[in-house]
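>> Question from a student workshop board

For tomorrow's exercise we were told to take the sequence and the ligand below, predict the bound structure, and bring the output to class. My setup keeps failing. Could a helper post the expected result so I can at least see what it should look like? The ligand is zinc ion.
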Amino acid sequence: MKKVVLLFLTAIFVFSCFSYSFAEEYDWNKIINDEAEAKILYQKAVDYVKQMKMDVGRDIYMRFEEPEHVKVHASNGGRSGENVFAFYRPMGPELIFMPKGATAIDFYTAAVHELTHAWNSSNCPPQDRSVNEGLSKWMEFMSCMAVGNRSKAGRILYESSVRDPIEYKVVQHLMELYKKGGIDSVKQYVKTTYKYEDK
Ligand SMILES: [Zn+2]
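>> Workshop helper replied:
Here is what the output should look like for this input. Compare the format with yours to find the bug.
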């Protein structure tokens, strides 16, 4: 009988080590070249977006491609491909293009960013780029904090402030709204705002 109890406790211990490991011991700096691993990270991004009630209620497939190909798809979709890392294509068919060779944390947060664009394009009127990108940046930041990666979270904010100060103001504004009224306030704001205005 004692043996059974001991075995049971060992099983619980081993199981908790495993479920613990993704969040705490996962190597977020590792390079993602393997499609199976990319799919796991993409699913993790899908789960996060769902948890934040920003999912679109349908599956959006991910295409895992060389970074140059992602840029080509982006410029075919009307974006200037140069600085594109990942890309959401709303139709023909709807897809998210993700690059090979990125670090796990860059891959994961970019997937959250693109999935948020999908929510935005289904739920918000056409709006100023700063609002649209600000929402995706804010989600990127939040997903990064959720896995405890503060250095990347800091980088996301810094890069946003350098790239587009208005976008950065939107990110800060969304943080305020989230603190006061949760995700519903954030969604309400982006659904009804065409352009950010200082108040
Ligand atoms: Zn974007």
